[in-house]
Amino acid sequence: WAADGQCKSNPGYMHDSCKYSCWEWRARASSARHHLPGRHSDPAAARFEHRRKAYPDAPIDKNFHCHNWAAKGECLSNRAFMATTCPESCKDKYEDEKDEPPSKPPARTAHRALAGPPPGHREDGRHHPRCIASPTSPQKKKKRKKKKKGEPKEEL
């Protein structure tokens, strides 16, 4: 987005969310005017060289091939290198490993005295009187009187 000029056209978002890219493109634009012979002729390679030097500790990609390497699974198979060289491309790849599935609840014991009564039950196995409904005593539903078509409405 920085390469597309979003740093100028959408500065509020870009300077907050992509600040390193905006700084990098600003520096690249000024250094492109003063390009020295023998330096990188590929602007993308020059950009990543600039990133490496200007922001060594920033969590941004520092190699042109980071995106391709990440797509091929290098973030997990070559973690030490990719974490420092391509943190921007790999940031979403590591999050999945942190989210471990919840552990299974402990199995209920067959002996009720050890496990205690289930919630809403008393020690004798019957439902607690404060339970709203229980399988042994269903609540009664109120029946509504259906009106037939053409009957006048009752007025109060």
From TrEMBL:
Q: Outline the extent of the ShKT domain.
A: 1-22, 61-91
Q: Where is the signal peptide?
A: none
The UniProt annotation puts the region (Disordered) at 91-156
Which InterPro entries does the record match to this protein? Answer: ShKT_dom
Point to the regions of Basic and acidic residues compositional bias.
91-102
Question: Where is this chain compositionally biased, Basic residues type?
Answer: 139-150
Which Pfam families does this chain map to?
A: ShK
Please give the name of this protein.
ShKT domain-containing protein
Q: Which organism is it from?
A: Emiliania huxleyi (Coccolithophore)
